[in-house]
Structure formats: C-alpha cells, structure tokens
Design a protein that fits this description.
Elements lengths: L11 E6 L4 H11 L4 E8 L11 E4 L6 H9 L3 E4 L6 H4 L2 H21 L5 E7 L26 H19 L4 E7 L1 E3 L6 H6 L4 E4 L5 E2 L1 E3 H13 L4 E5 L5 E2 H8 L3 E4 L1 H13 L7 H9 L6 H7 L7 H9 L8 H12 L3 H9 L19
Parallel strand pairs: 1-2, 1-4, 2-3, 4-5, 5-6, 6-11, 7-10, 8-13
Antiparallel strand pairs: 9-12
Helix pairs in contact: 1-7, 2-4, 4-5
Length: 371
C-alpha cells in the first residue's frame, strides 16, 4: 500500500549503489535521514571509508546477479544508482571501469526488471554525455544529442548507460524512472578529475581557448536526490547551478597561475599528470577544458521543481575557499592597493562638502607654442 504521493506505508526502502565513494556515502546517509525513508541499504564491492550513519551496508558487486537477491530480500521499492565511475585509476584500469559502469548497470537494471517491488529508479547521470566540441550550441537542452558521438572513455560509458535506462523505462512502464544529468559536482569534499585539476599548483590551459564551465555543488546533489525521492516526476533533467564561469575567471579566483599550451602539448602534460597520479587528465577532459559546455536548466526548475541553493559561481567559491593561492601576485597587490583607497562613501562625502579656501595663483598665464 502507498499513499497519494506514492510513498509506501512505513516509508521507502532505498538501495543506493556506489557508497564506497564519498559522494555516494554522503547521499546515502542523507537519504537515510529523509522523513519519507524507512531504511537505506548501501551496496558496493568495498566498505565505505567514513561514517554511514543509519545506512545498512551490503558488500555486493552489481556486476553479479546476486544483486537481484539483495533487492528481493530487502523488499526494495526505490533504487538510486550512483555507481558510475569517471576515473579509470580509481577502478583499477579502463577495462574494469567499463565493466563496473556498463555491465554493472545492465545487471542492476535486469534485477530491477524482475523485482515487482521496485517502483522508482533514480539514476545519477552527467552532462558529460553531451560531449564538448567547437560545434556545440550555447546551451544543451535535454532532447539534444552530442555533436560528436563519444567513441571511448567515460562519455561513451554514460551514453550506453542512458540507452539501457531508456530501454528499462519502456519495458517497465509501471516504474518511475528519473535520470539526473548533473553538471560537474564541486565542493570542498569532492575528489574528481576536475577538482584534482584545479588543485594543481600550476594549471595547464589550452592556448587560444577559454572554456565555459558549469558546476553543481555537492550539497545540491544531496538535495536533488532527496527532492527526486519525494517527487512523482519522471524523465531526464539537466541539473546545474545558475550561470557559468569562464576558465580564466576560475583561475583568477583561485589565484593560481595558468600556463597556456598548444593542444598537443596539453595532451602530453595530461599523460604525465596521469602517470604521476596528480590528476586524471583524459582526452575528454581536455576537450571540456578547451570548449567547455553549458546546459539549459529550465526543465529542472519548471517541471522537476528543484532550485539549487548554490549558483555556479558560489559553488566554485566554496570549493576554492580553503585552497592556498599559488600565484596571482598582481591580483593581491591590486587588492591591497584597493584596501588603502578611500571608500565610495568617503569620496561622496568629500564631493558634497563645501569647497575649502585654497589660495589660487593669479597672474599672466604663459602660452605654450606648439610647432
């Protein structure tokens, strides 16, 4: 039995995948505290590193059909799929990453299809599925396709995953399927290829380009999952903070020096960074940092009814707050000079004050002859 809002009596039983990573763990813990949730089961191949609160952890590999037994035994009615990995290094290599992403999603969807108790499927996808190229529109809407279909890597995995999710939605018309295409998640606690890039002491950029960046704060990711749980809306939605930040603006706000390099040289630097495990600078990230990407979030606000608390600029400022500047000497000098200048109010008072008796020089004025 369920109430008018679709909440089962006693509350939802939610299964969350990918809880061994910090974002998955945080989201699972927040869902466990949601008033409409009775119980949360966190699933992953390794235990979470931090406190998971009231979440019940089950060690299981979603690539294995045993996940169907977990769903059936726990009588799960809502599945939140967050086990999509963006970095091959953290997965043990590109082949393992593809297995976890694509094969794992296929097995999870097969288990959900067999379980009549599952009535809600929420998938955390990414705007990376749109790609990044010089032929992109100013803003991608949910019904648009990438101008260049991804041929490898994380973007190709996400495109395949979304295809399988759409197929599941057709086969299980009684199950509400919600796909959240999130912009790059950023925040003080986020460890991702993009945040690793911004934490570099000197940041390589592509010569002649200034990418448009859009972010989603980590707290807003938690909020949108809770909102999605209590909503009855289905479909695909772009999720991002309002506005954009140019890459050059981001570096100035970080007060970190950027080194403009030709595209081919950036690829070589990226390989060196990957080998040194300083940042996962993949070819698709290089394309993103060359052309950038913007997504339209009208449907998020008008249909899904969600409004992020952080704009793109505010999300980036919160991420940058605790980072030590490694450059930006000019900006710091100008800021110190600005602090010593009189305020606008003082200038206004001085302009409004009566003129003081200042002696003026009288006498003939010499003309200056110009030739």
């Amino acid at each position: 039995m369920a109430d008018a809002a679709g909440t089962p009596q006693g509350g939802h039983v939610v299964l969350v995948t990918g809880v061994s990573r910090d974002l998955g763990r945080r989201c699972a813990r927040a869902l466990a505290e949601h008033p409409s949730v009775r119980r949360v089961i966190g699933v992953d191949v390794v235990p979470p590193r931090g406190d998971i609160g009231d979440v019940s952890f089950v060690r299981a590999d979603i690539r294995n059909p045993v996940i169907a037994k977990v769903i059936a035994k726990e009588d799960v009615d809502t599945v939140v799929h967050m086990s999509v990995i963006a970095t091959p290094g953290s997965a043990g290599g590109r082949n393992t990453m593809k297995e976890l992403n694509v094969i794992g999603t296929m097995q999870l969807l097969a288990a959900c299809q067999k379980a009549p108790s599952v009535q809600n499927l929420i998938v955390k996808s990414t705007t990376t599925v749109y790609g990044a190229s010089n032929r992109d529109p100013a803003m991608f809407t949910e019904d648009m396709q990438p101008r260049r279909a991804p041929r490898a890597g994380y973007a190709k995995d996400v495109a395949e995953i979304e295809g399988y999710v759409r197929g599941f939605a057709r086969r299980r018309g009684d199950c509400r399927v919600l796909m959240l295409r999130c912009a790059n998640v950023i925040g003080p606690h986020v460890d991702s290829p993009l945040t690793s890039y911004f934490r570099l002491p000197v940041i390589p950029t592509v010569l002649g380009y200034d990418a448009r960046l859009q972010f989603l704060h980590e707290d807003d990711l938690v909020d949108v999952l809770g909102h999605a749980l209590e909503s009855d809306v289905a479909g695909t939605f772009n999720i991002a903070g309002e506005g954009i930040v140019m890459l050059s603006q981001a570096l100035r706000r970080l007060q970190r020096p950027g080194i403009p390099l030709p595209g081919f040289a950036v690829g070589g630097v990226g390989s060196a960074l990957r080998s040194a495990r300083l940042a996962d600078f993949s070819p698709e990230q290089q394309a993103f940092l060359t052309y950038g990407r913007g997504v339209d979030t009208t449907q998020m606000r008008d249909v899904l009814g969600f409004q992020p608390r952080f704009t793109t600029a505010e999300a980036f400022a919160d991420f940058a707050r605790d980072l030590t500047p490694t450059g930006g000497r000019t900006e710091r000098v100008l800021g110190a000079v600005a602090d010593r200048l009189p305020s606008t109010a003082a200038l206004s008072r001085a302009a409004a004050a009566p003129p003081s008796s200042v002696p003026t020089t009288t006498g003939p004025v010499e003309a200056v002859e110009t030739r």
